[in-house]
Amino acid sequence: MVPAGYLQSNQRPFGITLLGTEWSEDTLLGLAHDYEQASHLWQPPSEVNPSLFRCAFGQPRDIAPSSCAP
Question: Which residue ranges make up each domain of the chain?
Fold first, then answer.
């Protein structure tokens, strides 16, 4: 599976899955690598949707969790 873009509505990634016959892993990995390098679609998650990595402080404990872990 390789990145194929990001949904406009929520910036979640989606991908392309490559399937092959028995013992074709080397060909599939080569194709996936070539596609990924040519498309330049992969981005770090923190750049695509930074809100996923932001903590909300200053809210009461019953509203906001004590941890910022996703």
Answer: 2-53
